[in-house]
Amino acid sequence: MASSLSRIPMFTANRSTRQQPLTPSSTLPTTRRVSRFRCSAGQTGFFTRLGRLIKEKAKSDVDKLFSGFSKTRDNLAVIDELLLYWNLADTDRVLDELEEALLVSDFGPKITFKIVDSLKEDILSGKLKSGSEIKDALKKFVLDLLTSKAPKTELQLGFRKPAVIMIVGVNGGGKTTSLGKLANRLKKEGAKILLAAGDTFRAAASDQLEVWAERTGCEIITAEKANAKASSVISQAVKKGKDEGYDIVLCDTSGRLHTNYSLMEDLIACKKAVSKVVAGAPNEILLVLDGTTGLNMLPQAREFNEVVGITGLVLTKLDGSARGGCVVSVVDELGIPVKFVGVGEGVEDLQPFDAETFVNAIFS
Ligand SMILES: Nc1nc2c(ncn2[C@@H]2O[C@H](COP(=O)(O)OP(=O)(O)OP(=O)(O)O)[C@@H](O)[C@H]2O)c(=O)[nH]1
Ligand SMILES: [Mg+2]
């Protein structure tokens, strides 16, 4: 990690900071706090280490990660029963039921048929001879798919300071919450974080982000006036990030329907504005998808990807009634890695995605 400890002033987000969002920290009054940071970016490799470190921690958080998915597990538990009594003569019936279990878990028809066909071929050729071998082959198929189609699940933050992460998605998917949780994780690893309240459509949106700024002890830039352009708020934040040595600027954006052309264009403007301030930024454009919407998330992902180029997915609400198979469908179809999963509303409830852990959890 870094050699030097840096101290930066912070302030509790409140109305006065909103009205004067670009006031230099050094002149801010009263509620300033001082915080220690273990390291600060600027050295080559910091961002790479940060991405890796966060991912490694995922492995130790396995229980929490998949405390959700109970519905998926229930649906897929049928597979264990089926395979326990499997014999060759029963193959067609067992594979039909396995197909149904995968479909109700939102694996989607395309990937389900691929899995079942592959298992059938291996059973008929004598390669798979027992229920447990079939189960292992099923898990391996899904794992291979996840790791081959979208291997880079770590954040890719480039090497220029500040790295910029934009969070996009449809209304209510969990963008602001995920951004807050991500700020918490990154800050815990020692990064100096600035939040940008790029959701300028809803008056309450920046208040919500200010709560997260306060909760995580991060600074925030909000719009100076009503009806400000999102691109202007975001680019001001990135400028401040650059001038004041922030490691990462996390940009919230408004929820928008992927079918609304003018709102989607607004995202392109945000992306351009950021790239004018820091070459190569935004480094990550994370699409937040609500896990409870199941396969309906696919058209959203396609559209956002086409318009701004999505670098990673955040699947939220997996603690609820989400069906885990949709993760596999999205990765299979779009080849975009899932980078994080949301497993609750708390500040710690965002976990890095790890394919092996995921497969073990849903087929446990
Ligand atoms: N259970 C659960 N709830 C979540 C999760 N992520 C977000 N939520 C909740 O989902 C609701 C919407 O979250 P927001 O972060 O406001 O969603 P958003 O995408 O920013 O919404 P808009 O800005 O209105 O488009 C809130 O009540 C969150 O607490 C999650 O992983 N699990
Ligand atoms: Mg929001």
UniProtKB/TrEMBL annotation:
<dbReference type="GO" id="GO:0010027">
    <property type="term" value="P:thylakoid membrane organization"/>
</dbReference>
<dbReference type="GO" id="GO:0016020">
    <property type="term" value="C:membrane"/>
</dbReference>
<comment type="similarity">
    <text>Belongs to the GTP-binding SRP family.</text>
</comment>
<dbReference type="GO" id="GO:0006614">
    <property type="term" value="P:SRP-dependent cotranslational protein targeting to membrane"/>
</dbReference>
<keyword id="KW-0342">GTP-binding</keyword>
<keyword id="KW-0675">Receptor</keyword>
<dbReference type="Pfam" id="PF02881">
    <property type="entry name" value="SRP54_N"/>
</dbReference>
<dbReference type="InterPro" id="IPR036225">
    <property type="entry name" value="SRP/SRP_N"/>
</dbReference>
<keyword id="KW-0547">Nucleotide-binding</keyword>
<dbReference type="InterPro" id="IPR027417">
    <property type="entry name" value="P-loop_NTPase"/>
</dbReference>
<protein>
    <recommendedName>
        <fullName>SRP54-type proteins GTP-binding domain-containing protein</fullName>
    </recommendedName>
</protein>
<dbReference type="GO" id="GO:0009507">
    <property type="term" value="C:chloroplast"/>
</dbReference>
<dbReference type="InterPro" id="IPR004390">
    <property type="entry name" value="SR_rcpt_FtsY"/>
</dbReference>
<feature type="domain" description="SRP54-type proteins GTP-binding">
    <location>
        <begin position="337"/>
        <end position="350"/>
    </location>
</feature>
<dbReference type="InterPro" id="IPR003593">
    <property type="entry name" value="AAA+_ATPase"/>
</dbReference>
<dbReference type="InterPro" id="IPR042101">
    <property type="entry name" value="SRP54_N_sf"/>
</dbReference>
<dbReference type="Pfam" id="PF00448">
    <property type="entry name" value="SRP54"/>
</dbReference>
<dbReference type="GO" id="GO:0045038">
    <property type="term" value="P:protein import into chloroplast thylakoid membrane"/>
</dbReference>
<dbReference type="GO" id="GO:0005525">
    <property type="term" value="F:GTP binding"/>
</dbReference>
<keyword id="KW-0472">Membrane</keyword>
<dbReference type="GO" id="GO:0003924">
    <property type="term" value="F:GTPase activity"/>
</dbReference>
<dbReference type="InterPro" id="IPR013822">
    <property type="entry name" value="Signal_recog_particl_SRP54_hlx"/>
</dbReference>
<dbReference type="InterPro" id="IPR000897">
    <property type="entry name" value="SRP54_GTPase_dom"/>
</dbReference>
<dbReference type="GO" id="GO:0009772">
    <property type="term" value="P:photosynthetic electron transport in photosystem II"/>
</dbReference>
<dbReference type="GO" id="GO:0005047">
    <property type="term" value="F:signal recognition particle binding"/>
</dbReference>
